[in-house]
Amino acid sequence: MRRVVLIAVPYLWLLALFLVPFVIVLKISLSDIALARPPYLPQLDLSAGWQGVREFLSGLDLENFVFLTTDDLYWKAYLSSLRIALVSTLLTLLVGYPIAYGMARAAREWRPTLLMLVILPFWTSFLIRVYAWMGILSTEGVLNNVLLFLGVIDEPLQIMNTNTAVYIGIVYTYLPFMILPIYAALEKMDDSLLEAAEDLGCSRLQAFWLVTWPLSRNGIVAGCFLVFIPTIGEFVIPSLLGGSDTLMIGKVLWEEFFSNRDWPVASAVAVVLLAILIVPIILFQRNEQKAREAEG
Amino acid sequence: MKTPLTLTASAVVLTAGLAQAQEVRVYNWSDYIDEDLLAEFEEETGIELIYDVFDSNEVLETKMLAGGSGYDVVVPTGTFLQRQIAAGAFQELDKSKLPNLENMWDVIEERTAKYDPGNAYSINYMWGTTGLGVNVPMVKEILGEDAPVNSWDLVFDPENMEQLAECGVMFLDAPAEMIPAALNYIGEDPDSHEPEVIEQAEGVFMPIRPYIQKFHSSEYINALANGDICVAVGWSGDILQARDRAAEADNGVEISYFAPKEGAQMWFDQMAIPVDAPNPDAAHEFLNFIMDAENMAQASNYVYYANGNEASQEYLNEDVIGDPAIYPDAEALDNTFTTTPYPPRVQRTVTRLWTKIKSGT
């Protein structure tokens, strides 16, 4: 009995926080747009009993999903989001790995402080940090003024409202999610392994590639997924820092929901997005499980 | 400073149900009131006022259609108001609680009745036109002395735009205003609901889209004032606010507003009470407070938008009532046009076209 209760708690959690919202979104994606409150039909009328449920079910169809295939905007936006997410993940890894490595190599008494510095930005609202980047990157912003003053450039750089600004915003925002798992993996590493490698004739670089890198692999994979998965659906960063030609599925979804007031099509876009994300999420789970088994 | 809209959106929901005293929750456009008025309202009526802001009709409409927003007073633009009334989002005003209605201006009420017959659900807060915010010295430096600053040619002619891209041009991210402006420019009916006509706007925007820095409905105020951009297609009062901010900052930036000579869109922001407002009585008190002649004048003097309150005109500053960019003369009013809401199918055409214009796909 106790076992059943223990197992039931996480499942109830999953049911309440994931499955129920998903079923609601799925239901809306099968409905039709209407001028009403809320703006879709059919509505489930429980007072009419079974008759109401049957009428409700007969009003659902896949029309909105078919509609998504008729316009190339949607798959282009999905592809463009995937590309931006991939590139940002790679950039975050390039920036994050050396930081995590440096932290793990630092003197033991310094590590809590360094860890604190990585986490510190979370104490400020995410939106305020993105707005701060607008102040730094704009034509009259801090960066351009400093570069102009130093004589590095003659004309202000147009970074704000371009994809470059989006990449900067994403890499900055998600960097801690990359650093922390890699640091966790590196910190656990036994230094004597490196000594052994060097004793056996490895140069320091070889020792890094043959020992450190493979041992931090789980951290790298975890970090990449933690950056990649939320970046695909990112909306705030592209809409604040990006230009009008930054095409991401989060923005398309916003347009469907707010500009077209078409909740059914917006829900269909969200359902497809989830389907796309399920593959990397499952891979992530499997990696975590393997890591746990290897430790256990 | 702009308030990030996502932040403010959640603030009210969190505080819902906590306060015991009588209160009223108002959801208005950003940069759209003299905040001293809010304190004055609390003092005068003893009602606690919770004030939140948004910067797009779409965000407001989604809240209204979802229901349960928790707001008592909201401020949609006429076309959006009309659709939301049809969806059953608002309650009829109890005019016996609004003695200050006698202050309202029939010239404006006639026009707003197009969206809200008999003005049964709403009162006019402010109105204005959609036109050009121009940093005239910067533009003349680039295009020469005879730059067409008071014409849609400035932004719809690709040759001008190609050169202006150098100093920066922003457009409103509001298809319901930008597409009618383009249709009006090519001599079509700006209020057309025919998809074939609407799609002609593509031909106006596609050649100029590479030169548009951004489509956004509030960033241009600061961008103009800071000198980050030299032209913005925007709302009259916002541009006049940019002019004022630049003057206050004394940064050498000079901004002017022009209602283009080919015709500018006229719009009306209306205050209405959601059908599920928790405090409808306090909401009526707020509307009545706003319709007080001196209060309304104070708001207009602060935000540089004209209002629909005739009695307030004697309290308006000379640089408001006397500025034809804010209170156009009768002839200029004839040169404006209004639009009506799109039905859902046509709305989809409009949004899709707008996405294509913004993103190129």
TrEMBL record, chain A:
It comes from the Bacteria. SUPFAM superfamilies: MetI-like. The keyword Transmembrane helix applies. The chain crosses the membrane at residues 12-30, 82-102, 114-134, 165-186, 220-243, 263-284. This is Putrescine transport system permease protein PotH. The keyword Transport applies. It is found in: Cell membrane. PROSITE patterns: ABC_TM1. Residues 78-284 form the ABC transmembrane type-1 domain. It is a multi-pass membrane protein. GO terms for cellular component: plasma membrane. PANTHER family: INNER MEMBRANE ABC TRANSPORTER PERMEASE PROTEIN YDCU-RELATED-RELATED, PUTRESCINE TRANSPORT SYSTEM PERMEASE PROTEIN POTH. Pfam families: BPD_transp_1. Keywords: Cell membrane, Membrane, Transmembrane, Transmembrane helix, Transport. Belongs to the binding-protein-dependent transport system permease family. CysTW subfamily. One of its GO terms (biological process) is transmembrane transport. Gene3D superfamilies: MetI-like.
From TrEMBL, chain B:
The keyword Signal applies. Coiled coil: none annotated. The keyword Flavoprotein does not apply. Its main location: periplasm. GO terms for biological process: polyamine transport. It comes from the Bacteria. Keywords: Periplasm, Signal, Transport. GO terms for cellular component: periplasmic space. It is found in: Periplasm. Residues 1-21 form the signal peptide. One of its GO terms (molecular function) is polyamine binding. InterPro entries: SBP (IPR006059), Sperm_putr-bd (IPR001188). Pfam families: SBP_bac_8. Required for the activity of the bacterial periplasmic transport system of putrescine. Belongs to the bacterial solute-binding protein PotD/PotF family. This is Putrescine-binding periplasmic protein.
